[in-house]
Design brief:
0% of the residues lie in helices and 45% in strands. It contains no helices and eleven strands. Strand 5 and strand 6 form a beta hairpin.
């Protein structure tokens, strides 16, 4: 089992950058595929990015491709989401998620693939 805790959210102007981090507990972190999701007010939770157990494979939602980068450090049990060129429509609560399916495929964007979730961190993009 793994416990997840996000940090790094905040208020940023359009065009700015933020770096979200997810700290995971447990010695089996490297066995999990990891993802980021987000949920804006009045909207469903949506997929943002995913990364395989090794970090060698990544998968992004079209809406963030080219602007966001997901990475992981298995020695520090952390997953990071670097967000650049932020837009107002990126405003949401961002959640870190862990899956016992360690690899990435076309279903890595499904929320029900992930068994473990953090509490979320708020990202607000506004001038």
């Amino acid at each position: 089992q793994v416990q997840l805790a996000e940090s790094g959210g905040g208020l940023v102007q359009p065009g700015g950058s933020l770096r979200l981090s997810c700290a995971a507990s447990g010695r089996t972190f490297r066995q999990y595929g990891m993802g980021w999701f987000r949920q804006a007010p009045g909207k469903e939770r949506e997929f943002v990015a995913a990364i395989s157990w090794s970090g060698g494979n990544t998968y992004y939602a079209d809406s963030v491709k080219g602007r966001f980068t997901i990475s992981r450090d298995n020695t520090r049990n952390t997953v990071t989401l670097q967000m650049n060129s932020l837009k107002p429509e990126d405003t949401a609560v961002y959640y870190c998620a862990g899956s016992t399916i360690a690899t990435i495929d076309g279903r890595s964007d499904r929320w029900d693939r992930y068994q473990y979730w953090g509490q979320g961190t708020q990202v607000t993009v506004s001038s």
